[in-house]
Design brief:
The chain is of the alpha+beta class and 145 residues long. It has a single domain, classed as Immunoglobulins (Immunoglobulin-like). Helix content is 31%, strand content 40%. The strands form two sheets. A four-stranded antiparallel beta sheet has the order 4-3-6-7.
């Protein structure tokens, strides 16, 4: 039996293993979905934009709010019926596409300058946590000023 093992070309086996590993690494770095979540503003409404910057589509993902700071009652009242205020929203995105979720009305924050800070968890279709993102509208507003 050891004669068979000694006849194997170990260099070839190692090279094939390295090739398989590099193929997997290429897939992970270039083909998988790559989510970015960032704040935006339009028509006095503060939004969270979810972008799929990767090369594969995202299907049946869930965006869940896990923390909100500086959200005033006026904005909570306006947004009661919207998906994200109920703490989670489902979405699917093709590569290089975006979707938006309203967070608050900007008017309530202009005078005191304390804009919302919202933290999200993103879950895939199987319910596994993919990542955590924090959108700080204070930083976004300061960049615009």
């Amino acid at each position: 039996m050891w004669e068979i093992v000694s006849d194997w070309n170990w260099e070839l086996i190692i090279a094939l293993g390295a090739l398989a590993l590099s193929g997997y690494t290429f897939y992970v770095q270039n083909v998988k979905a790559e989510l970015a979540i960032y704040p935006s503003e339009e028509d006095d409404i503060l939004y969270v934009i979810v972008e799929n910057a990767g090369k594969s589509s995202v299907k049946d993902y869930t965006l869940q709010v896990v923390g909100m700071k500086n959200v005033d009652r006026f904005s909570e009242g306006i947004l009661t019926g919207m998906k994200l205020t109920q703490r989670q929203a489902s979405f699917s995105l093709a590569p290089n596409r975006t979707t938006t979720f309203p967070i608050a009305n900007k008017i309530g924050y202009v005078f005191d300058g304390n804009f919302p800070i919202v933290t999200f968890n993103v879950y895939n279709a199987k319910g596994r946590k993919v990542d955590t993102f924090t959108c700080d509208f204070n930083m976004y507003h300061n960049q615009l000023s």
